[in-house]
Design brief:
Blueprint: E1 14-18, H1 26-36, E2 40-45, H2 47-52, H3 55-62, E3 66-68, H4 74-88, E4 91-96, H5 102-105, H6 115-138, E5 142-152, H7 164-184, E6 190-196, H8 202-205, H9 210-220, H10 228-239, E7 250-253, H11 264-277
Parallel strand pairs: 1-2, 1-4, 2-3, 4-5, 5-6, 6-7
Helix pairs in contact: 1-10, 4-6, 6-7
This protein binds nicotinamide-adenine-dinucleotide (NAD).
Nicotinamide-adenine-dinucleotide (NAD) binds at residues 19, 21, 25-27, 45-46, 49, 70-72, 97-100, 124, 151-153, 196, 198-199, 201-204.
Length: 278
């Protein structure tokens, strides 16, 4: 955890954190930041990830119970909501930090997708946000004024070839955040996505060409790529009461990449490459 001792921004707040797999996971860093800010929460991940991962370590450090849940399974999501209420009562924030593409994993090119796997990419990475909000409402697990954040990527707006069908999944995720956000707004509940820059995690580095995407973004972004801990700090503000009227937004957390064209550093690098070729 960073030197930051916290500001008590989430004191008294309760939440559900999806997607912490190992120490590098953005959700792991967010869980530590939420703890630092005084929140209580449950941790959840797919049963298979719980077997492979190291979530018990995070559970010990944060005092958070772990509840298994495959987000593609309605029963699992409903049970998670019921168990969360038993552990904590109703919650004030939800983090969706879930993404997986079998096509990327199995190296299927975008023009030759396996459609069953494509549906799985969409189900796991995007429709799951809908399913989580649906069951949270049905089981009355969200407090009025709660804040929901899902992690996205700029592939939702622009083509990043190596990101393949995850570009489509993120576009759907952001659309669901807007549409569900409009339905929950009468209760003061906000739903946003944070569009995070490339970050060295298990899901991130699993993408072929990740190093190139990471370096490109870092060279273009005036502030450089933000780390997972910096993403966690930003996320805390969205869970806090300081952002009560921010909803249905896709918020770039990328050091300025999204609004940049080319940087001086990149121009110099390219000039060197072409000078060497001449
Ligand atoms: N790493 C990056 O470069 C980057 C950039 C922008 C956005 N994101 C997004 O951040 C989020 C978190 O990813 P990360 O980079 O921390 O990687 P990660 O691999 O640590 O997290 C992905 C998580 O999704 C979980 N998951 C997969 N299938 C699931 C299922 N069926 N049910 C429940 N959970 C399931 C995994 O177990 C894992 O914990 C993802 O949405 C990812 O797309 C990552």
């Amino acid at each position: 955890m960073s030197e930051n001792k916290g500001y008590g921004l989430l004191k008294g707040k309760k939440g559900i954190i999806f997607g912490a797999l190992d120490e590098r996971s953005i959700a792991w860093r967010i869980a530590l930041a939420c703890k630092r800010e005084g929140a209580e929460f449950v941790l959840t991940n797919a049963p298979v990830a719980l077997r492979l991962g190291t979530l018990d370590g995070l559970s010990e450090v944060t005092g958070a119970p772990v509840i298994p849940c495959d987000v593609t399974d309605d029963k699992d999501v409903e049970t998670l909501m019921e168990k969360t209420k038993e552990e904590l009562g109703k919650v004030d924030f939800v983090l969706h930090a879930i993404g997986m593409s079998p096509n990327i994993r199995k190296k299927k090119p975008y023009t030759d997708l396996n459609y069953k796997w494509f549906q799985q990419s969409l189900d796991i990475s995007a429709i799951s946000l809908h399913r989580i909000l649906h069951w949270a409402e049905k089981t009355d697990t969200l407090n009025d004024g709660a804040s929901v954040v899902a992690l996205s990527y700029i592939g939702a707006q622009r083509v990043f070839s190596k990101y393949s069908d995850m570009n489509d999944a993120k576009a759907l995720l952001e659309s669901i955040a807007r549409n569900y956000g409009s339905r929950l707004a009468p209760r003061g509940i906000r739903v946003n996505t944070i569009s995070q820059a490339p970050t060295k995690t298990s899901a991130g580095t699993g993408i072929k060409g990740f190093d190139g995407m990471y370096t490109f973004a870092d060279k273009i972004a005036p502030l450089g790529n933000p780390t997972a801990d910096e993403c966690a700090d930003y996320c805390v503000t969205l869970f806090s009461d300081l952002t009560r009227k921010v909803t249905m937004q896709n918020l770039y957390h990328d050091g300025g990449f999204a609004t940049s064209g080319i940087s001086e550093a990149m121009i110099e690098d390219l000039a060197k490459i072409y000078a060497d070729e001449e």
